[in-house]
Amino acid sequence: MASASLTGARAAAPARVVRAFLDKYGLICLLLVMPVAFGIHDLRTEGDLSRLGNNLLDGLSNGSIWALVAIGYTLVYGIVELINFAHGDVFMIGSFTAAGFFGTIGLTAATGVPGLIAGLLLTLLVAMLASGSLNLMIERVAYRPLRGAPRLAPLVAAVGFSFILQNVGLLWRGGSQQGIVDLINSQKELVMIAGVSVTHGDTLAIAVTIPLVLAMTLFISRTRLGKAMRATAQDPDAARLMGINVDTTISATFLIGGMLAGAAGLTYALYQTTVWYFQGFTAGLIAFTAAVMGGIGNIRGAVLGGLIIGVIQQISDNRIGSQWTPAIVFAFLVLIMVFKPSGLLGEETREAG
Amino acid sequence: MAMLEVDDIHTYYGNIAALKGISLTVEEGECVTLIGSNGAGKSTTLRSISGLTPPRTGDIVFEGENITRTPPAAIVRLGISQSPEGRRCFPRMTVRENLDMGAYLRRDDGIAGDVERVFGLFPRLQERERQKAGTMSGGEQQMLAIGRALMARPKLLLLDEPSMGIAPILVERIYETIAEINRQGTTILLVEQNANYALAVSQRAYVLETGTVALSDSSAALRTNPDVQKAYLGG
After folding, report:
1. What integer pLDDT is reported at residue A1 of this predicted model?
2. How far is B146 from chain A (nearest CA, A)?
3. Considering CB atoms only, which of B82, B91, B149 is closest to A353?
4. Which residue range is the domain that position B140 belongs to?
């Protein structure tokens, strides 16, 4: 009896070790599969890693746009437990506003660098305000009246608002992709570092994203309103008992999420040099996936998810073929969910906690 | 005039009446308790006073001001704060952050001093100052919930079931502290299923049954009342 159970335990030991290893490092291994495989391939065929380096950089700069949009999903979900399906379209309107505003203030490809930077900062502000106030308005009109209603009602309202905004976009700039002035000469190389070409577009995306994410993180951790947002996300009734005005706090959350989407909209327009009424749907889907992958409700998770998806997309576009990219992105999402259902940095949600 | 006057309030959850005409008063400096079984309407009474579920009819008057339809934040500002049922600490904030949230509406410079006061009342909280509330035991979270409510510097403190789900040894400690808070001058309205402790610490009590006041008397008299003993004191 005793010896039988002993051998049983011994046989189970390696399986347990494998299991523990997978639990701990499985996710990291999963995420490293593509870069490592293609890195080895590059080293064997080309002798250096510059192609992979370019993939990673392009992925990170693209991903930082998704990260900005994903934060809006995750902030709103964290505080009202609603997937704001109109968020991608708020991003699209931000793009359209930015693209329209360039022309209005007379920015062209010939504008000098100081004028260009000043003009772009102004445009950034305008796009952020437009998207932010639009998101605020959506909350006020479509979600707040449904606050006490069953979950499905605001969800359907969100889908409805997404359609409304898409049609606004369709009326505004028509149904086809529209090229806009390549103000920053997006694909032009700024510097070359170890074979990795850093373009103007990459620089812009990173220069917009990093300060905004840092500012927002500081805002949420340090300011009174930021603390009210965290408290409301963790327990709305307790927040009311502290004297927090929950409606105002929710409005502020939508405003901030919308502003980040507006900033992403500007970056996207300059980076891609095209805008399209349907861009919000695709970007929204990707950013939502990023938010879920990172752990919905978690801001750092949304940023991480956005960057990871950006890199996966870039590697897949460049190595495997862009027709496979959506399938690969969602395959990664499914695998990550299998390993960690709450997402990469997910924490227990309100119901669970 | 009493500090708090609750006059014939009827409160509903949807179409279900939880309170069917509750009236009570709390004088300044008192500790008053509401006892009663599950579903009697004790917590709903506190939620109505705090403005979380305003009554459909009836009046709540605090220091001469009618607060029946006043939003929760304004009620906190007037001087009523609550430690809610189930503690409801912010789980992913530290002890210190939770206490700071309690002082959310205050802009005076006495906040640091009040944190010290709470730490004096509950030394355990000081040891855990940097710990996330969600990782603490039920008793510690209860201390934090009471401390957090005190941080608003309330004139009237509402305490909902401070003994729920807590080890008996800690219940005793918490009740000693509640008595101490009352001695220091804070008026308390306490809701409790554990009638033994509640009647020991309070001066007056109301017995609630299915949304109405069944009985009210001094706590000492209720403790010797045979019906109360049978129903709530395990006698």
Report:
1. 43
2. 12
3. B91
4. 4-232
